[in-house]
Amino acid sequence: MVYDYLIVGAGFAGCVTAERLASSGKKVLLIDKRPHIGGNAFDEFDQYGILIHKYGPHIFHTNSEQIFKYLSKFTEWHHYEHRVLAKVDDQLLPIPINLDTINRLYHLDLDEESLKDFYEKVREPREFIRTSEDVVLNTVGRDLYEKFYRGYTRKQWGMDPSELSASVTARIPVRTNRDDRYFTDTYQVMPLHGYAKMFKKMIDLPNIELKLETDFEAIKDYVQASHIIYTGPIDTYFNYRFGKLPYRSLRFEHEHDDSIQQCQPTGTVNYPNDFDFTRITEFKHLTGQTHSGTSIVREYPQSEGDPYYPVPRSENEFLYKKYKSLAEEEKNVTFVGRLAQYRYYNMDQVVGAALSVVEKLLEAGSV
């Protein structure tokens, strides 16, 4: 069989590019080394009948009407605004930090204007913002940094915030109002019947052939394809020529409790200072599912295992750019996605990148 495109990886990047190209009349072979589609966003019903995210919570949010409308072709939506609490000083407090967080933590009665003054008094100004530690200290000062950020970051990344680029903690806003939503995007929704069903509908096209439990290295010399779209780790593609790019991985501990309908007040509770895990997510909050029991997942960051998060440090970015230079020299190969572009993308950003890649390929008439 001769294909126009071989797409490596059936997560967001792979499925979106496969759908767009197949819908344009291209013959596509989509492969994934796992036994399922959807990548890390894969979800399924556990043995108790609760829809869970196998690889930790994936909450969809975007400000892009284009991306929302595109995905809406493949799913109905459940409206969901994610809220997170952090266990600090034996209290469950809103994170991102807001007016209620400060008032409850310090037993104060501030309003929005006086909270701005509070932040100004406690912050440790930094002339140059280079690290994640700089970001937080410059914004909210030492005590809030120690209580909410430092321990969580050290668990998540295996290093101190002072060793990580500013982008890590810059993702988390600090608020002066009472808005306790984790995200403020225009569109905050979850696929009504789950991500896996959405992906299945997306790639249910006669021009797409799907092969699961298939490794790229094992078939690349046998498949006849005019162009490759690669969504896996870029250093793996080049056989680690310059050394391995650092990633953080996760271990997931799933648990079910039949005795209660709900075990925590919000979808996710962070544990910045206690335990080896970073957070617990209770899935029924996310999906809106009704069930007599409940299922949760604890996340344990680790250095070994499947790559989840590119580690944002300047030396890692330098190493990535060496691989990017090799990628730009590759003929008829396109790299897209979190692992292929070594970027801490949100899901909507991956969709946007994939749509952009296909648009350029079709405009160029590469196949």
Automatic annotation (TrEMBL):
One of its GO terms (molecular function) is UDP-galactopyranose mutase activity. Its EC number is 5.4.99.9. Its cofactor is FAD. Keywords: FAD, Flavoprotein, Isomerase. InterPro entries: UDP-GALP_mutase (IPR004379), UDP-GalPyranose_mutase_C (IPR015899). Pfam families: GLF (PF03275), NAD_binding_8 (PF13450). Residues 147-344 form the UDP-galactopyranose mutase C-terminal domain. Belongs to the UDP-galactopyranose/dTDP-fucopyranose mutase family. NCBIfam families: UDP-GALP_mutase (TIGR00031). This is UDP-galactopyranose mutase.
